[in-house]
Amino acid sequence: MIPVRRAAAPQNTQTLLGRRTDAVRSAGATTRAAREEWRKAATPKRHIRDLLRGMAHGAERCMYCLDNLGTDIDHFQPIAVAPLRAFDWPNHLLACSSCNSNHKRDEYPCDEAGNCLLVDPSTEDPADHLLLLPASGEYEARTPKGVQTIRVFGLNRKDLVMGRQTAFVVCRSALHDWHALLRSGDTAGAAEIARALRLTPFADVLRSLERSALPPAAEGAVFGMKTAAALAEWRRTHRVIPDGIHR
Fold first, then answer.
1. How buried is residue 236: exposed, middle or buried, by Cβ count under 10 Å (0-12/13-18/19+)?
2. How many angstroms separate the CA atoms of 43 and 112, rounded?
């Protein structure tokens, strides 16, 4: 999971969504009323989907797992929990059917104070709550919110772990090629690889590498000296500050 920048909804979209919210309220603001209004809201859903597609990583990737195509409009706070947020633009994210329908569904865990215990990538940095170990492909929780996020979205399910492990190997190789091209003076070729790296599935793998807070010596031992050198140059070129350093 990586941060997602929320797009501003145009005025006509806000008007459409506001009318639907008013309709839900007039019908009693129940889960049933909201779901019925959502079912028949073809035009508002088209507006929402278009905005989410523009926000999504690469080829419209799921904003939770970053692997599968984002096919669903997910209500971050489920309709069953908050019917009046069914058409609230800040409550929508793009998700794959596995993350949305097979795992999250109507879950919305909260702490004793009522604060949500799921990471919303459009309002916070997932790295504050989640630590990805790129070589193993698994997430570890940094906070209680991280624990629930991993569980609810199934972020450590087998297919995702295997996908991240593969992405780690591919990412290291691409970084080596990028570094070699940059050092040879082929800036166009290096830029092409950099763009491809940014757009590939499992963008969280690259982000975990470039933001690694390991000391240089430890980074060389863990990732290999060639990868550590490429990462150091990548950070300088792209002005990336590793987590825990100069913050």
1. exposed
2. 38
- Tell the residue number behind the tokens 């863990």, with chain if given: 222
At residue 109, the 3 state secondary structure works out as coil
pLDDT in tens, 208-221: 998 887 777 788 88
Burial annotation 24-58 (CB, 10 A radius, 16+ → b, else e):
beeeeeebebbeebbeebeebbebbbebbeebbbe
pLDDT digits (tens, 9 = 90+) for 171-187: 999 999 999 999 999 99
Query: Model-level pTM?
Result: 0.89
Each as own residue / partner, the long-range contacts of residues 223-232 (CB below 8 Å, 24 or more positions apart, any chain) are 223/135, 223/172, 224/172, 226/176, 227/172, 227/175, 227/176, 229/179, 230/175, 230/176, 230/178, 230/179, 231/175
Beta carbons of 98 and 234 less than 8 angstroms apart: no
Q: Which amino acid is at 140?
A: E
